Amino acid sequence: MRWTLFVLLLLLWGCWDQGEEPPGEPVGSFEAVGLMVEQSCGAAIPAPDPLDLRFELRSEANGRAYWRQYGGSMFAGVEKDGEYVFQTSQSWMVIEPDRFRGYVGCSVTQRDVFTFVVDPLEVGTEIDAGVEEELDAGVGVDPALITLTGSQTTEIVPLTGSDCTPAVAALGGPFLSLPCRVEYVLTGTGVEIE
Question: Residue 154 is inside which H or E element, if any?
Fold first, then answer.
């Protein structure tokens, strides 16, 4: 059984060799904190609160985007108007079928979605002259002036034809309920690109 919240981070969606330059242009590196707003899965999904993330975003002009947590694999997604969406889905078996008892088993689909909105520094009257000159000259701005907001959700839904009744906590299973959901609200700032 796989009882981790971040299967998204472990799937073999796209892993580039450490020596290769990853695809896309760097958008920035970020540190974010996620505050849990929902956890209806129970002990089946260990979910820290708060959630700490450190990751890199990259994008291409065609709208393709890439997300990588430091030390992890890179995942492909999409970017449109500063909003980045990364999602993956996989199905797995929670309880094996038992033909002798006539039990069909319990299989679920887990869907993970990360959504980020990157807000670059807005030029306004409160910017000091040095920063405004850097913006006008196209020089990089302090990454701490870039903010990020978003969410991370994990939804687990039984597959059609499954009997997941034994997987629910009331009957000794690991899930508080099925279907279930874990959701975080994320906020973060840019950090120096490594």
Answer: strand 147-158
Q: How far apart are CA 128 and CA 42, in angstroms?
A: 49
Determine how many CB atoms are found less than 10 A away from the CB of residue 86.
21
CB 62 within 8 A of CB 24: no
Taking alpha carbons only, the member of 69, 105, 90, 104 closest to residue 155 is 90
Quick: pLDDT tens for 20-67.
667 888 888 899 999 999 999 998 888 899 999 999 999 999 999 999
Residues found in the chain: 194
pLDDT range class, residue 190, cuts 50, 70, 90 = confident
Report the candidate in 42, 4, 38, 34 with the shortest Cα–Cα distance to residue 183.
38
Nearest alpha-carbon partner for 182 in 6, 12, 2, 9:
6
Rounded-to-integer distance, Cα 151 and Cα 133, Å: 34
Helix (H) / strand (E) element for 117: namely strand 106-119
Domain boundaries, the chain: 7-15+27-191
